[in-house]
């Protein structure tokens, strides 16, 4: 389980996505197994990582997905935290100033307790406000653009918390219902794994190329959530370890040690059905046409908002799926195949849905095919 999570991390949004991604790759994954690893054994940890998204990663690899993601300068850090720039334009100082002020307050507020982000943001913002110049306090307490009724200062604190997570000051504690409280990392782990910034960034790029190579700095930027102009801080650390290859007339880079694997004949076929969540690592490949050649089908799968999951049959993306969990603890799954599927695939999909239901915390499941789908006669 840790080996799978450590390749490139498992995004855990929407909630439960990491468990579904693990279930698609490892036998025997249940909510109890994952909770044991996150809460009891603490061999896995949930943290904000790439693109400011929540991820589940191995505890031993925590520096790779925190220190390794943290940009090296303030401009790049501001680029990573999408949405913070407009707020900072109205206040004195830059992002690093508010991160430093927030850091002290977070340690005070979270000491000995766990708080969800809104309550944490409120209490921290109250402590930061007196440290600001008088003319900035009015703006700090005025309603900001991020949520109705939310003061601008609280919104900025929410952004700063993402940087503090990458600085290994806090992480997510186990979920409480629909909320994900934060806890001080020093209180959550007996010892915090450490890795120097350069080593952590180099290892992060190595894992990116192992999972998604051949690729480019632009591909890395999209995966990390930074500007392409910021990528040299990562990419230049692996220039001695990569080789240029041609992919359909386009130049890409690959880890030199992986070249023989790329050139070898790939005869292994992934058998069976997998329900991949929308944020599954498999779907983060920048070359979408490799997974789904048809442009119209790509648009069905990768949407600007509320993307569905991918239905994988014998290693191929053959359609999309969505779930809805009823209050009666029944999981309803709607499948939208791109093309007609043989009846044997229908049976395999229903069987796979029942195993997925256990991961989603229920034993009851229904599978329906979309209204537009025409099954073969």
Question: Which key terms come to mind for this protein?
Answer:
377 residues; three-stranded antiparallel sheet; 3 domains; five-stranded mixed sheet; 17% strand; single chain; 41% helix; 18 helices; globular
Quick take:
The protein has helices at 2-8, 17-23, 31-40, 62-65, 74-80, 85-88, 95-110, 117-128, 134-141, 152-166, 185-188, 197-212, 217-224, 232-235, 259-263, 288-291, 295-301, 343-359, and strands spanning 10-11, 44-48, 54-58, 170-172, 182-184, 242-247, 250-255, 273-276, 309-313, 316-325, 330-337, 364-369. The chain is α+β, with helices and mostly antiparallel strands and 377 residues long.
List the helices and strands and how they pair.
Layout: H1 2-8, E1 10-11, H2 17-23, H3 31-40, E2 44-48, E3 54-58, H4 62-65, H5 74-80, H6 85-88, H7 95-110, H8 117-128, H9 134-141, H10 152-166, E4 170-172, E5 182-184, H11 185-188, H12 197-212, H13 217-224, H14 232-235, E6 242-247, E7 250-255, H15 259-263, E8 273-276, H16 288-291, H17 295-301, E9 309-313, E10 316-325, E11 330-337, H18 343-359, E12 364-369
Parallel strand pairs: 11-12
Antiparallel strand pairs: 1-3, 2-3, 4-5, 6-7, 8-9, 9-10, 10-11
Helix pairs in contact: 7-8, 7-10, 8-10
Task: Walk me through the structure.
The longest helix is centred in the C-terminal third of the chain and has 17 residues, at 343-359. This protein folds into three domains: 2-188, no CATH class; 197-263, Arc Repressor Mutant, subunit A, CATH 1.10.10; 273-369, no CATH class. With 377 residues, the chain is an alpha+beta fold. The protein is built from 18 helices and twelve strands.
């Amino acid at each position: 389980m840790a080996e799978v999570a450590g390749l490139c991390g498992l995004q855990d949004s929407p909630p439960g996505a990491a468990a579904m991604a693990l279930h698609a790759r490892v036998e025997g994954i249940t909510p109890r197994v994952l909770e044991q690893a996150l809460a009891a054994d603490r061999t896995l940890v949930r943290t904000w990582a790439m693109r400011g998204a929540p991820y589940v990663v191995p505890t031993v690899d925590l520096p790779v997905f925190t220190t390794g993601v943290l940009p090296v300068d303030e401009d790049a850090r501001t680029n990573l935290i999408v949405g913070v720039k407009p707020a900072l334009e109205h206040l004195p100082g830059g992002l690093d100033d508010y991160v430093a002020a927030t850091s002290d307050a977070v340690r005070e507020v979270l000491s000995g307790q766990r708080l969800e982000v809104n309550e944490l943001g409120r209490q921290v913002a109250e402590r930061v406000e007196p440290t600001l110049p008088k003319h900035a306090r009015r703006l700090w307490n005025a309603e900001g653009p991020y949520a109705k009724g939310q003061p601008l200062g609280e919104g900025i604190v929410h952004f700063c918390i993402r940087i503090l997570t990458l600085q290994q000051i806090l992480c997510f504690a186990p979920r409480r219902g629909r909320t994900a409280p934060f806890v001080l990392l020093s209180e959550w782990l007996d010892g915090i794994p450490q890795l120097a910034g350069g080593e952590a960034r180099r290892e992060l790029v190595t894992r990116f190329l192992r999972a998604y190579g051949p690729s480019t700095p632009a591909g890395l930027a999209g995966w990390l959530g930074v500007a392409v102009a910021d990528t040299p801080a990562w990419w230049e650390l692996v220039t001695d370890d990569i080789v240029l290859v041609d992919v359909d007339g386009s130049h890409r880079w690959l880890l030199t040690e992986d070249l023989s694997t790329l050139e070898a004949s790939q005869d292994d076929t992934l058998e069976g059905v997998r329900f991949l969540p929308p944020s599954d690592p498999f779907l983060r490949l920048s070359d979408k046409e490799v997974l789904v050649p048809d442009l119209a089908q790509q648009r069905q799968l990768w949407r600007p908002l509320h993307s569905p999951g991918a239905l994988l049959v014998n290693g191929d993306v053959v359609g999309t799926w969505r779930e809805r969990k009823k209050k009666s603890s029944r999981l309803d799954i709607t499948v939208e195949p791109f093309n007609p599927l043989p009846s044997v695939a229908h049976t395999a999909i229903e069987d796979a849905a029942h195993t997925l239901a256990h991961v989603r915390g229920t034993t009851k499941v229904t599978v329906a095919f979309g209204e537009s789908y025409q099954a073969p006669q």
